[in-house]
Amino acid sequence: MSKGPVLFADIGKKAKDLLTKDYNSDQKFSVSTNSDAGVALTSTAVKKGGLSTGDVAALYMYKNTTFDVKFDTGSNISTTLTFTDFLPSTKTIASIKFPDYNSGKLEVQYFHDRASFTTAVALNQSPSIDVTATIGTPTIAFGAEAGYDTTLGSLTKYTAGISVTKPDSYASMILGDKGDSLQASYVHHLDLLKKSSVAGEITRRFSTNENTFTIGGSFPVDHLTVVKAKLNNHGKLGAVVQHEVIPKSVLTISSEVDTKALDKSPRFGLAIALKP
Fold it and tell me: Where do the TM regions start and end (predicted)?
């Protein structure tokens, strides 16, 4: 692939991952294994409230092709087939979920030194089409996204964004929800290895005059333990502790508290991921 600008879906992703990833109030257990034949198997069990769900996923990679299939306790089968460089500088992704045959989707990504494009088409009788494009360099990128409903003959969404990437920082701004929301985010890395980072994100919704501001960060306690925390202007406080119990086996404990609620009882989440 080229060393050009990021895909539109990646604009703002660094701040989003830092402020949302691993924060949960569910109990989760995951085990991954790799076979000599190149097949990766992952079993996951999640308990949310009084409901327990689980799934088994298999990932197989052969040259430029990746096949991913997942079976869950709801009798659903999800399959994703990815071809890299099937055509020069492209990635093709085909996905479908059974028994919902209308969930099929075909996406083609194209990468160039000065631009990137994606086209996604729903594989059903009334397909919707999503198109994104970014232009620029790995340092600065301008992008836009549009969705079109072929049945209604109208645009379902249009979004625009810009991102600026530097060695020690990342900033982005996205105008979304058909122009109704503006989101700006900033990430700053505190060390050369980018293990310690702080982030801030502000979202303005024009139709309701509502502002949401979130700050957070990720900091290593030692080479085995990482602490994450975030707080927004609505009083939602979240914290995450991740500890590598044994090599490639991570224990994650997270908690959320609404400091403005009458009941300030924290909600806890537990995730255990075991990898070979």
Answer: none
Residues 6+ apart with CB under 8 A from 125: 102
Q: And the tokens for 267?
A: 């909600």
Q: Hey, which residues does 240 pair with through a beta bridge? A: 228, 254
Q: Is residue 2 part of a domain?
A: no
Question: What CATH number is attached to the domain comprising 33?
Answer: 2.40.160.10
Tokens of 259: 């400091």
**Host domain of residue 35:** 8-274
Question: Is 245 within a domain?
Answer: yes
Instruction: Give CA separation, 135 vs 47, 159, 161, 163, in Å.
Output: 43, 15, 11, 11
Q: What is the pLDDT of residues 236-261, one digit of tens each?
A: 999 999 998 888 788 899 888 888 77
Number of domain units in the chain: 1
Contact 29, 119 (CB under 8 A): no
Question: Cα–Cα distance between 39 and 98 in angstroms, integer?
Answer: 22
pLDDT per position as a tens digit, 3-18? 789 999 999 999 999 9
pLDDT category at 230 given cuts 50, 70, 90 is very high
User: Looking at the domain assignment, is residue 1 inside a domain?
Assistant: no
Per the confidence metrics, is the pTM higher than 0.90?
no
pLDDT score recorded for residue 48: 80
